[in-house]
Structure formats: C-alpha cells, structure tokens
C-alpha cells in the first residue's frame, strides 16, 4: 500500500532525514512520535507528496510518487497545520471546490455526509472566516476525507481541538480504521496514539529508532520506553 525505500532529505547541505525504508500494509494505523526537531514534519511532507525526497522512492498503491497524476492524488488525504481552506468561501463552497477538483461522485450528498460526520452540518453556509480554530480543523478533516482516500496523512491533528472536537476526530479515525483505510499520523500525543493506532514508529535525528506493533502496550510502559529511546520529556500536543 505505502512502500518507502531508502528515502532521505537534505536541505541546504544538512541531512534532515537519513535513508529510511519501511512498508505500511493496507488498513494499518501508524503513528510517528519523536522529539522536537527529529524530522517528523519533513518525513510527513515527503510521504504526503508535498516535497520530493533527495534520494529514494515512495510508492502508493503501486503508483510511484514521481507520478504527479490526479489518480495518485486521489489516493491520499492530508490533514496538517495548513487547513487548505478559503476564508471567504462557506463550508459548502470549500468542499465543492475540492470535490470538483477530485471528481467526487454524488458530490452534494457526499458533502452533507462528511459535514454531518464532523458535526458541522448547521454551519454549511457560513464563511470559514467566522469559524473558530477547532471548527476549521473539523472542516479540514471533512475536506481531507471528502474523496474517500485510501491513505490518510495527519500531522499533529489534535492541536487546538477542544475535548468534543478530539472525540469527533477520534471517532472519525476509528471509523476510517474500521473501514480498513490506512492512516499515518504524526503526533506528540502518545496516549491517543496508543489507543488508536496499531503500529508505532519513533523518529530521532532523522532516523527511525523504534518500529513495532503497538497493540497492548500500556501508556506508562510506553512512556518509560520512549524516554529510554530519546531521553527528555514526552510532550503533549
Ligand atoms: N526548510 C528547512 N531549512 C532548513 N532546515 C530545516 C528546514 N525544515 C526543517 N529543517 C530542520 O530539520 C530538522 C527537522 O525539522 P522538522 O520540522 O521535520 O522536525 P519535527 O520532528 O517535525 O519537529 P517538531 O516536533 O518541533 O515539529 C530541524 O533541525 C529543522 O531545523
């Protein structure tokens, strides 16, 4: 499903990601943890096709990441700090814009469905500039799943969310996981990670230093292990 072979990234002569290789089978929910500056966001940008690797290759559902086709873009959804929303457009208009770009079938009913999913159906006609940070984050989740991607990338999705929005996000992620979609999440929030995901990667200084199935690990056990691996404090988003 996602195959990463020897990818590295150097910026301005500095090696930020050392060659890393791993495969993520269909339906797996992978979380990447690591201290500040480990290279998580850079890895995220590489995998979500926002920036090309310096070396190595990425293959998504058998398609090379070098192929910039709409077909490849349709395979992935991205939730990051950047909401990719237009302030002056309403929730409906934003989703129409993306839905048309991704050639979503039965777009109007799919838009209503995803807005219900994230609890924003009452705000369908409101401009995004009137939305709180958490509401914008919810709408960016709706945008990212609108075209039913088989692979969803999430970079610190919990930042700025209230308890209700965290619950909505967790429910959405759980449903996507149950639907056997593949999820790849970067977070500092290891408690959510342990509850939801079934594989943990720890990145430090641009290298993967831990890669294991997470099912059944208690949070205090993992916290101890993590501190042994990277030292310092485990931070929460
Ligand atoms: N465009 C860039 N130019 C130069 N250095 C960069 C650039 N982007 C990232 N870096 C450096 O690469 C390293 C990894 O950064 P990255 O943002 O990927 O880490 P991170 O694990 O996401 O950190 P955080 O948890 O703080 O968000 C850092 O030392 C950072 O300064």
Molecular structure report:
Strand 7, helix 6 and strand 8 form a beta-alpha-beta unit. A 6-stranded mixed sheet has the order 6-7-8-3-9-10, with helices on both faces. A 4-stranded antiparallel sheet has the order 2-1-4-5, with helices on one face. The chain has helices at 40-47, 70-75, 91-101, 107-117, 133-145, 163-178, 190-196, 219-230; strands at 2-11, 14-24, 29-33, 55-60, 63-64, 76-79, 151-155, 182-186, 199-204, 207-213. The chain has one domain: 3-Layer(aba) Sandwich (Rossmann fold). With 237 residues, it is α/β, with parallel strands linked by helices. It is globular and about 50 Å long. The chain is built from 8 helices and 10 strands. Bound molecules: adenosine-5'-triphosphate (ATP). Adenosine-5'-triphosphate (ATP) binds at residues 11-12, 14, 16, 34, 36-42.
What is the gyration radius calculated from CA atoms? Answer: 18 Å
Structural class label: alpha/beta
What is the number of domains? 1
Order of helices and strands: EEEHEEHEHHHEHEHEEH
CATH architecture: 3-Layer(aba) Sandwich
At the fold tier of CATH, the topology name is Rossmann fold
What is the mean predicted local confidence, pLDDT? 90
Query: How many beta-strand runs?
Result: 10
What compounds are bound to the protein?
A: adenosine-5'-triphosphate
Spatial order of the strands forming the largest sheet: 6-7-8-3-9-10
- Global outline: globular
CATH superfamily: P-loop containing nucleotide triphosphate hydrolases
Protein name: Sodium ABC transporter ATP-binding protein
Family: Belongs to the ABC transporter superfamily.
Domain ABC transporter: 2-230
Keywords: ATP-binding, Nucleotide-binding, Transport
